[in-house]
Specification:
Blueprint (H helix, E strand, L loop, with lengths): L3 H6 L23 H17 L9 H4 L9 H21 L2 H8 L9 H17 L1 H11 L2 H18 L5 H27 L7 H53 L22 H31 L4 H29 L1 H26 L9 H16 L1 H11 L7 H29 L5 H26 L8
């Protein structure tokens, strides 16, 4: 039988001196490098599988992927998204023009709050349908989503010229247009998240500016076309423009990252257990309440004020969207410098203060007789400031939500957020119409509602930020 020393020397890989065995070291000997390499992927996979469904993890900590942060392919995706949002958000930013026209022509016998349901259904579906579209993007990519969106948007504009009854406008503009908008903007913004991380705010802001660009061009175009070629041919010309801008959207919007393992198209509302996500969603709920009030009622307010021409009522919405165009890019750039939530809070403060300090006084002056000439400059300055600041509501929403999750789940988080937010868009425009009726045809109630919505939105987003980094204002987040 071999001795104790002989047993130890049987293994050629390690030898021990004769005598008493030394005490065990405080640290284990280094493991074999091949063993570590074999174990590391399993450990990472195990950690990924053990994530709790209601807990979010920051992108910077968990993403094992790199982002191009530029390059031809990445910027072509931004360009394709820009062209896609010209159609979908250009249509959304022009709802005030359509509402002002059909309320005095085809549907003149209906009240403002009744007509408002057409456009509230449109905005509701534009955001609500994301609960399925976002997960489908995560699992399947954007190609078929963008193609279906293009067909529905073009078809909606083509058929709109044939509408004469309330239900026809509801189906064609509200349902077809709303579905088309949702199918377009969800993959357009989500695809950018596959190519940018550090510069995601700037890239998303550039893409979102397409909606404001359409919101400038379409009201001015319709102002000229309505009296010259009529409503039907005006909408057909818009359909042709939609067809043209959707071509590059179909070509260039694409995803880069593989689908997340085990991803499904079923929604998961367990993420609302994350306090930051819940406060962020509540903030955007109130934001959308306030945002669509000027978009829907500013044109009609100008028409009924008696101090500005009918032509200028269309132009002021173009001024509003021109400010939003610059604001969407600027807020994205600012977000990359000072933090996404910080930039969003700053723009919310500007929106709420401009509504209460400028639009509210102008609506009060409109109640006097004769109407004060100060209404026009107040309305114009409000349109510029509110339009500029409210652009962040489109460009920074995706990147703020994206900051709360890993990239592969970005579509699901963004879609789940806006599923809840969509109920504010469903009720907002009709609430505005009811406020106009309750105030005897005046618009001061709408202005107050807009300002207070942004006050509540600011408070909720501040709580979301505090849940992550505390209340210190100097922290970048």
């Amino acid at each position: 039988m071999p001795t104790h020393t002989e047993q130890l020397t049987l293994k050629p890989s390690r030898t021990y001196p004769e005598g008493p065995i030394p005490a065990a070291p405080r640290t284990l000997p280094p493991a074999d490098e091949q063993q570590l390499a074999a174990l590391q992927p399993k450990c990472l996979e195990s950690q990924e599988d053990e994530k709790l469904p209601g807990v979010t993890y920051s992108t910077e900590q968990t993403d094992a992927v790199t982002y191009p942060e530029g390059g031809l392919e990445a910027w072509l995706v931004v360009f394709g998204s820009f062209m896609g949002t010209i159609a979908c958000f250009g249509m959304m930013n022009s709802v005030g023009v359509f509402q002002a026209y059909i309320s005095t022509h085809q549907l003149h016998q209906y009240s403002q709050d009744e007509i408002g349901w057409i456009f509230s259904v449109y905005t509701f579906l534009a955001f609500f349908c994301g609960v399925q579209i976002g997960p489908i993007f995560d699992a399947k990519g954007p190609r078929w989503l963008v193609l279906a969106a293009s067909i529905l948007l073009v078809l909606s504009m083509l058929l709109l010229g044939f509408c004469r009854q309330f239900y026809q406008f509801l189906i064609v503009f509200g349902i077809l247009g709303g579905l088309g908008t949702s199918l377009m903007f969800t993959p357009a913004f989500s695809a950018i998240g596959h190519f940018f991380l550090v510069g995601r705010g700037t890239a998303t802001g550039i893409a979102a500016a397409g909606g404001s660009f359409g919101g400038v061009v379409f009201p001015l175009m319709l102002q000229q076309l309505f009296p010259r070629v009529g409503f039907a041919w005006s909408t057909r010309i818009m359909a042709l423009i939609f067809f043209a801008v959707c071509i590059p959207a179909n070509i260039f919007i694409r995803s880069r990252l593989p689908p997340k393992q085990g991803s499904t198209v079923l929604p998961d509302f367990g993420i609302f257990r994350n306090a930051a996500f819940s406060f962020t969603t509540a903030s955007y709920f109130f934001l959308e309440w306030g945002l669509f009030m000027p978009i829907a009622y500013l044109t009609i307010f100008v028409q009924e004020s008696g101090t500005m021409s009918n032509a200028f009522s269309y132009q002021i919405l173009a001024i509003f969207n021109a400010g939003s165009c610059f604001g969407r890019w600027a807020s994205g750039w600012l977000a990359d410098k000072i933090g996404r939530y910080n930039a969003m809070l700053l723009t919310m403060f500007l929106c709420g203060s401009s509504a209460l300090a400028m639009w509210l006084p102008s609506t009060g002056l409109a109640t006097s007789f004769p109407a004060s000439p100060a209404i026009m400059p107040l309305a114009v300055v409000f349109s510029v400031i509110f339009g500029f600041a409210s652009g962040a509501g489109i460009s920074l929403t995706p990147v703020c939500v994206g900051q709360l999750c890993i990239t592969e789940e970005y579509g699901r988080y963004y879609a789940t957020c806006y599923t809840m937010v969509s109920f504010s868009t469903l009720t907002g425009i009709p609430i505005g119409g009811a406020l106009v009726s309750a105030c005897g045809g005046k618009y001061w109630g709408v202005a107050v509602f807009t300002g207070m919505s942004y006050v509540l939105s600011f408070a909720c987003l501040a709580c979301a930020r505090a849940s992550r980094v505390g209340w210190a204002p100097g922290k970048k987040y």
